[in-house]
Write a structure and sequence with these properties.
The protein has 288 residues and is mainly alpha-helical. It folds into two domains: 204 residues, Up-down Bundle (Alpha-lytic protease prodomain-like); 73 residues, Alpha-Beta Plaits (2-Layer Sandwich), CATH 3.30.70. Strands 1-2-3 form a three-stranded mixed β-sheet. β2, α8 and β3 form a beta-alpha-beta unit. α3 packs antiparallel against α6. The chain is elongated, with a radius of gyration of 25 Å. The protein starts with a helix and ends with a strand.
């Protein structure tokens, strides 16, 4: 699958998830406002933020799929990683708003009107979220998409918060209405954790953290005839766009033409064995 096909696939998945997220959000917000249940309403706005993150993801995918140009010789793929940080930022905003609502409800308690329909809405939307998360995470790993994986973490937080809301509804039904804002506060913590998880993953790419085991690269390089040793290996990039540079030692009396052929053979071997590698820079050195 080439880059254009990959990004088209990711785009279609995001659009599908966007529609499902907004359907779930509308159901939670409407019934949360009708029943005056702050935790359900909070969970609804969290689901709505899932939709907002899908839009951020769509913008990121549009930029990431642009071809290489004079000012971007390595391409634009890191825009996908960069925009996943936008998803994390949206989560922090939702977290802040929920904490404000929880504090407000603690000072001014409201008795929610909880019925069978409230539980039904939460259980149905929870089931939808579980399906969406598993689908998005599976596709994200298969396509090596930061946006889809980050968005699935966003949906995972939604699942945790929905479970918390169900417990809050049970507590309210048993006569403990103050647990509603307490659960709202816990929801905010779940969301903050999801945001931190996204930032942690994105920073590894943007800060050029090592992405491959050096041993595997050495083993492949030494299969090339003429390569005597390999060291100073550096890897960076996204899981689907790995850049490698390394030093290879060859016989000191070797002609430049032969050394160039070995360099080309090493690049070809690495890309064949590890398809995610898109760029290889080989520095030739004489054996000492």
């Amino acid at each position: 699958m080439d880059s254009e096909q990959r990004y088209g696939h990711v785009r279609r998945i995001l659009l599908l998830v966007l529609m499902l997220n907004w359907l779930v959000a509308a159901a939670k917000i409407i019934f949360g406002l009708m029943t005056k249940c702050s935790s359900m309403t909070a969970d609804g706005f969290h689901s709505f933020s899932d939709g907002a993150s899908n839009i951020i993801g769509l913008v990121g995918i549009f930029l990431a799929c642009q071809p290489k140009d004079k000012n971007h010789p390595y391409g634009h793929k890191k825009y996908e990683t960069l925009f996943s940080l936008g998803i994390a930022a949206s989560l922090f905003i939702v977290c802040f708003e929920l904490i404000k609502e929880a504090v407000k409800r603690l000072h001014n308690p409201v008795m929610p009107d909880i019925g069978f329909l409230s539980f039904a809405v939460m259980l149905v939307t929870l089931g939808i979220n579980i399906i969406v998360m598993n689908f998005e995470r599976r596709k994200g790993r298969a396509l090596k998409s930061d946006i889809l994986i980050s968005d699935s973490l966003h949906t995972r937080a939604d699942i945790l918060t929905s479970i918390s809301v169900i417990f809050a509804l049970l507590a309210i039904k048993l006569g403990f209405p103050l647990l509603d804002p307490v659960v709202t506060f816990l929801i905010a913590l779940f969301i903050a954790y999801a945001a931190i998880d996204i930032i942690r993953g994105s920073s590894r790419v943007l800060c050029d953290t090592i992405v491959m085991d050096e041993t595997k690269i050495v083993d492949i390089v030494l299969t090339v005839k003429g390569a005597k040793a390999c060291h100073k290996i550096r890897t960076r990039g996204r899981p689907d766009d790995i850049h490698v540079d390394l030093h290879v030692q060859v016989n000191p009396d070797m002609h430049m033409d032969q050394a160039h052929k070995i360099s080309y053979a090493i690049e070809k071997a690495l890309k064949k064995e590890i398809p995610e590698i898109t760029d290889v820079v080989v520095h030739m050195e004489p054996v000492t």
